[in-house]
Structures are given as structure tokens and as C-alpha cells.
Amino acid sequence: MAEVKVTKQNYEQELLQSDIPVLVDLWAEWCGPCRMLSPILSEIAAEKEGELKIAKINVDEEPELAAAFQASSIPMLVVIKQGKVTNVSVGYIPKERVLALL
Fold first, then answer.
1. For 55-64, how does the pLDDT look when each residue is reduced to its tens digit (9 = 90+)?
2. Which domains does the chain have, with CATH numbers?
């Protein structure tokens, strides 16, 4: 499974200790642009299975993690490689721009 739900409990294991790059999606149920981005991320997860993990953080359910990423606006995408943030994007972006982040 290339898409995982991230919580405080599995944050370190899924994001910081991942063997492959992680694309973190900070989102919320009520966010229209987040819902537009979600199928794009699912598509990328399927295409890059084994070489990329998509980690979903619901900012309403995990406000501490949202604060840790300083998420003042969503959707927010964060690329993490070897436990370090390498790229960030805020707002809806098309698939080509998501792939360019990686």
C-alpha cells in the first residue's frame, strides 16, 4: 500500500524512518482543493509504488502534526527524503507540478 494515514503514533516510523521518499499530504475533509488533489496523489502512489510513499495527515484529526509542519494553508505537500524536508508546496497543483516536487 503506497498511501498511509499518518498519526502521532506512527509519524516517526512512516515519515522519518522511511527507506523511500515520502510525499506528505496535509489535508482536511472540508477542503475542496484537497479533494481535487487526492485522486492525483492516488494515481502517483500507484505509479510509483515501491519507490515513493504517500502519507496523508488530516489536519483536523492531527492538529499537533499540522502545527509541526507549520501548515497555515491546505492542501500542503511536503517531500521528506531520509528524514529531512526537501520540498514544500501549498495549494492545489496539477500532477506535473507534484511530480516536479519529487
1. 999 999 999 9
2. 3-101 (3.40.30.10)
